[in-house]
Design goal:
Radius of gyration: 23 Å
CATH architecture of the largest domain: Sandwich
CATH superfamily of the largest domain: tricorn interacting facor f3 domain
CATH topology of the largest domain: Immunoglobulin-like
Number of strands: 25
Shape: globular
Distance between the termini: 26 Å
Largest sheet: 9 strands, mixed
Structural class: alpha+beta
Length: 525
C-alpha cells in the first residue's frame, strides 16, 4: 500500500473511533456522484456501493437440524489443502468462490429512503479445514442481508452475533483436520457515497467505475470472510455486468461470455493471499495494454483513456524492476503482475491487490517521480505482504517496511544510485521526524492496525532493513532475504521469526537493534 504524503510528520494516524471520521484524514474531498441508475440506462456510470442492508436474525427453522457435509481431504479447484495453518482459531480458510451478478433495478429502502437501485445476486462458497473440533463457525460479515447458508443441499441455521459477525451452526462436531464448505447466498444493493475517506469500503464507486476496497477489514463489507491477515486463501470470481464494462479481478482471466447484453467474466487466483487483497473492478474507461518482463511474466495494465498517454511514464520501468526482484529475491510468487487505475479510498497512492495492484488517478496526473515510486512499491508487495503474509496487524512493518526497502532497491536497479540515494535521504529525514511516536512493532497483538497506519512502518521499517544490510553486507543480506521469501512463500510471518532467522543464518545477535528500533522508538543511524 502506498499513501500520498504518507510520511509527513503532521499527518496523524486515524483514531480508532470508526463511527466518527477523524479531522486529520488522509483522504481528500471528491465530488458527489449520482445513484447508479445509469447502469440500467447504459450511460456508462456504475454508481454503486455494495452495501449489505438489513440483517436476518436466523435462517428458517428446519424440521430437523441440518448437518454440514465433511470432506476428509478438501481441495479448491484441484489444489489440495495440505499445508494447513493449525495456529488459526477454529478454521484455516482454503478458498472463496465468489459469484456476483447484476439482477435488475428494483425499489428498496436505503437509508430510510425509497430508491430505485441496482440489485445484485451474490453467492460465496468458502472451503475450510477445521483446526479444532467445532460445532459452529463465526464469519466476519457486516450488516448482512443473508438469505441462506448451506452445505451442499443442506440449509444450515445462522444468526447475527453483532453488526459485523454471523454465527453458522454446523449441526454436528466437525473434527480437527476435516474439511467442509459453506455457501452464503445474499442480495447486494447499491448505495450512494459522497466522500472519499478511509472510512469508505466494500464496493466503492466513481461516475465511471466500481471497485472493491477491502483494507484492512472492509472485505467483510461485501464478502463473508475470516479476515485475519494470517488466514490467506485462494480466490475465484464469476462477475456479470452490462457488456459496456471492462471487468478486472485477481488472478488469471479464465474466459468471458456474452448473453442478452450482459458479460460474465471469470477469474482464478490459486495461490493463497490475504483477504484484504481480494479485488473486483469494472469500468467503462479502461484501456488495456500488455507488457511482459524479460523473464516472461505477464504485466497487463488497465489505465483510463484520460491517462493512457501517461502509462509509460508511470509503469514503463516496472518490467525491469520485476526482473531485478526475480534475479535478487527469487521466483515471482504469482502468475502475473498487473496494474489498474482506480481511486484509493484514502485519496492517492496505491493498493497491493495481488496480480492487479491499484494506482490512484492522481498518480497518473501528478509527478512521474512519485508515481513511479508508487508503482514500484505496489509491485514489490507481491513479495512482501502478499507473497509472504503478516501473522498479526502488529507486525504491519513486515509488510510495508520490507516493501519500502525493496522499492528503494528496485529504484536503484532501474534508475540508478543517484535516484535511490535521494529517496534514502528523504526516508531518513522522515524517520527521524516520526520515530518517537510509537514502536515499529508494538507489543499489543490486539491493536487496530489503523493505530499504526502512518509513515513509521514504512520509512523506519525500511531504514531498519538498510541498517541490517550495512551491518552484514549487501550480498549476505540479499541472500538472507531470498531465503526468507522462499521459505515463507504464501505463509505468515512474525517479527520474532525474523529476528530468530537473522541471528541463526547470519551468526550474530541483533538484540540491541530489535529492542531499541523495532520494539522501541529508537532509530538506528
Amino acid at each position: 500500500m502506498k499513501l500520498p504524503a504518507l510520511l509527513s510528520a503532521d499527518r496523524p494516524a486515524v483514531p480508532l473511533d470508526a463511527g466518527s471520521p477523524p479531522s486529520g484524514r488522509r483522504g481528500r474531498a471528491r465530488p458527489a456522484f449520482r445513484a447508479a441508475s445509469a447502469l440500467v440506462a447504459g450511460l456508462g456510470a456504475l454508481a454503486m456501493s455494495l452495501a449489505l442492508s438489513g440483517c436476518s436474525a436466523a435462517a428458517p427453522e428446519a424440521e430437523e437440524p441440518a448437518e454440514v457435509a465433511e470432506e476428509e481431504l478438501i481441495s479448491f479447484h484441484g489444489v489440495a489443502a495440505r499445508d494447513v495453518d493449525r495456529s488459526l482459531p477454529d478454521v484455516d480458510t482454503i478458498g472463496y468462490d465468489v459469484t456476483l451478478a447484476y439482477r435488475g433495478e428494483e425499489t428498496r429502502s436505503v437509508g430510510g429512503r425509497s430508491l430505485r437501485t441496482p440489485v445484485f445476486s451474490a453467492t460465496v462458497t468458502a472451503a475450510y479445514v477445521a483446526t479444532a473440533p467445532i460445532t459452529s463457525l463465526v464469519v466476519d460479515f457486516t450488516q448482512p442481508h443473508l438469505g441462506r447458508v448451506s452445505s451442499g443441499s443442506r440449509t444450515l441455521a445462522f444468526q447475527a452475533v453483532d453488526s459485523e459477525h454471523v454465527k453458522v451452526s454446523l449441526g454436528k462436531t466437525v473434527r480437527a483436520g476435516t474439511g467442509f464448505r459453506l455457501t452464503f447466498a445474499y442480495e447486494v444493493l447499491s448505495r450512494e457515497l459522497d466522500d472519499r475517506e478511509r472510512e469508505d469500503g466494500g464496493i466503492v464507486v466513481t461516475p465511471t467505475s466500481m471497485y472493491s476496497a477491502s483494507w484492512p477489514r472492509k472485505g467483510r463489507w461485501w464478502l463473508p470472510l475470516r479476515d485475519s491477515p494470517r488466514d490467506g486463501a485462494m480466490f475465484t470470481a464469476k462477475l456479470t455486468f452490462p457488456e459496456q464494462f471492462t471487468v478486472v479481478s485477481n488472478g488469471t482471466e479464465r474466459g468471458v461470455s456474452t448473453e442478452a447484453g450482459m458479460k460474465t467474466w471469470r477469474f482464478e487466483l490459486l495461490t493463497p493471499t490475504p483477504s484484504y487483497g481480494f479485488f473486483v473492478g469494472a469500468s467503462t474507461e479502461w484501456v488495456r495494454a500488455d507488457a511482459t518482463s524479460a523473464g516472461g511474466i505477464p504485466m497487463p495494465s488497465w489505465v483510463t483513456r484520460a491517462h493512457a498517454s501517461r502509462r509509460d511514464d508511470v509503469l514503463g520501468g516496472t518490467p525491469k524492476a520485476l526482473d531485478f526482484l526475480v534475479s535478487t529475491y527469487g521466483p515471482f510468487p504469482f502468475g502475473q503482475a498487473g496494474f489498474v487505475e482506480v481511486p484509493t479510498t484514502w485519496g492517492g497512492g496505491g493498493m497491493e491487490h495481488p496480480t492487479v495492484v491499484a494506482i490512484d488517478p492522481s498518480d497518473f496526473a501528478g509527478s512521474p517521480t512519485d508515481a513511479r515510486h508508487t508503482a514500484f512499491h505496489e509491485l514489490c508487495h507481491h513479495y512482501s505482504g502478499d507473497g509472504v503474509r503478516i501473522a498479526n496487524w502488529a507486525d504491519f512493518w513486515l509488510s510495508e517496511g520490507f516493501t519500502e526497502y525493496l522499492t528503494h532497491r528496485s529504484l536503484e536497479a532501474v534508475y540508478g544510485k543517484t535516484v535511490s540515494d535521494a529517496r534514502w535521504r528523504k526516508t531518513l529525514s522522515e524517520a527521524r521526524a516520526t520515530a518517537a511516536e510509537h514502536a515499529l512493532r508494538p507489543r499489543n497483538d490486539a491493536l487496530d492496525v489503523r493505530e499504526i497506519f502512518d509513515g513509521i512502518v514504512y520509512v523506519k521499517g525500511a531504514w531498519v532493513l538498510r541498517t541490517l544490510e550495512e551491518a552484514v553486507g549487501r550480498e549476505k543480506f540479499d541472500a538472507f532475504l531470498k531465503g526468507w521469501f522462499t521459505r515463507h512463500k504464501h505463509k505468515a510471518v512474525t517479527t520474532e521469526m525474523l529476528q530468530k532467522e537473522l541471528e541463526s543464518e547470519l551468526g550474530r545477535s541483533f538484540e540491541t537493534l530489535f529492542t531499541s528500533a523495532v520494539y522501541g522508538t529508537g532509530l538506528p543511524e
